[in-house]
From TrEMBL:
This is Enoyl-[acyl-carrier-protein] reductase [NADH]. Keywords: Fatty acid biosynthesis, Fatty acid metabolism, Lipid biosynthesis, Lipid metabolism, NAD, Oxidoreductase. It catalyses: a 2,3-saturated acyl-[ACP] + NAD(+) = a (2E)-enoyl-[ACP] + NADH + H(+). GO terms for molecular function: oxidoreductase activity. Pathway: Lipid metabolism. Belongs to the short-chain dehydrogenases/reductases (SDR) family. FabI subfamily. It comes from the Bacteria. The gene is fabI. Gene3D superfamilies: Enoyl acyl carrier protein reductase, NAD(P)-binding Rossmann-like Domain. Its EC number is 1.3.1.9. It is an enzyme of class 1 (oxidoreductase).
Length: 256
């Protein structure tokens, strides 16, 4: 369908073909969006170029952006403004925590590790929203990726769970700030999906196995399902929704 015909959407966080942001890329591309990509590392850039080529998707623009730097974010969005002009959507699909703090007791989290997780995984949405809103002059939609560990204690998720709680609260405060400009901010809370980042959290198989056992749908979700839910948030189909966290987790979160 052409739900996103004529829309320019920035996608942050494609590391490889397993990335959630790659599932989102396919959904938005199939809906007719023009896509702009940002990535942090040279390695991801090379992978992205190959992936786009293999899937016959043409990027409007690829810019580098390290969300740990305000300057880098500003430069990226200035380049997008100069080369593309107005944007209508942003996909924020980045997070980071030190691997050694994604296991054991949360109480052992270091000050630095706590701040790093908050900076890359939560504050980045604040900084990106501020930069994006300047070029979302026709209104728009911003979508981030979160996880159930924000709401409940999930073994080993630890410092990232606290960062995701901060991210989800940011979604609500940001939604209030930019709502007056016709910009919406929402989050998708996906079930466990095997990606590069997921490898950093211990006990992935255990988590995925539990979903198959007890989630209402008795199966895990994949990148494409997150992609289609994100398409809903980016498109006008969700024009009445902002500040929301939508679970794409086979219903796991409703089970006690
Ligand atoms: O089970 C999962 N995989 C779930 C992931 C369940 C629910 C939510 N999520 C979230 C993650 O927490 C994250 O917010 O989805 C988002 C995307 O995660 P992913 O798709 O699982 O992970 P991955 O494929 O590793 O992509 C993460 C990207 C990488 O891109 P680059 O281009 O940098 O290689 O986040 C990037 C990471 O490197 N990233 C950064 N990007 C810009 N600046 C930074 C940074 N400082 N740090 C990490």
């Amino acid at each position: 369908s052409g739900l996103l015909e004529g829309k320019n959407v920035v996608i942050m966080g494609v590391a490889n073909e397993r990335s959630i942001a790659w599932g989102i890329t396919k959904s938005l591309h199939n809906a007719g969006a023009k896509l702009i990509f940002t990535n942090r590392q040279e390695r991801s850039y090379n992978k992205l170029v190959k992936l786009l080529d293999k899937n016959d998707i043409e990027a409007e623009l690829i810019v580098s952006c390290d969300v740990s730097s305000d300057e880098s974010i500003q430069e990226a969005f200035t380049e997008i403004k100069n080369k593309v002009g107005v944007i209508h959507g942003v996909i924020h699909s980045v997070a980071f925590a030190n691997r050694e703090e994604l296991q054991g007791e949360y109480a052992n989290t270091s000050r630095d590790g706590f701040l790093t997780a908050q900076e890359i995984s939560a504050y980045s949405l604040v900084a990106v929203t501020r930069a994006a809103k300047e070029i979302m002059t026709e209104g728009g939609s911003i979508v981030t990726q979160t996880y159930l560990g924000a709401e409940r204690v999930i073994k080993d998720y630890n410092v990232m769970g606290v960062a995701k709680a901060s991210l989800e609260a940011s979604v609500r405060y940001l939604a209030e700030d930019v709502g007056k400009y016709g910009i919406r901010v929402n989050a998708v809370s996906a079930g466990p999906i095997r990606t590069l980042s997921a490898k950093g959290v211990s006990g992935f198989n255990e988590k995925a196995g539990k979903i198959e056992e007890v989630a209402p749908l008795r199966r895990n979700v994949d990148q494409d399902q997150v992609g289609d839910a994100t398409l809903f948030f980016i498109s006008d189909l969700s024009r009445g929704v902002t500040g929301e966290v939508l679970h794409v987790d086979s219903g796991f979160h409703i089970i006690g």
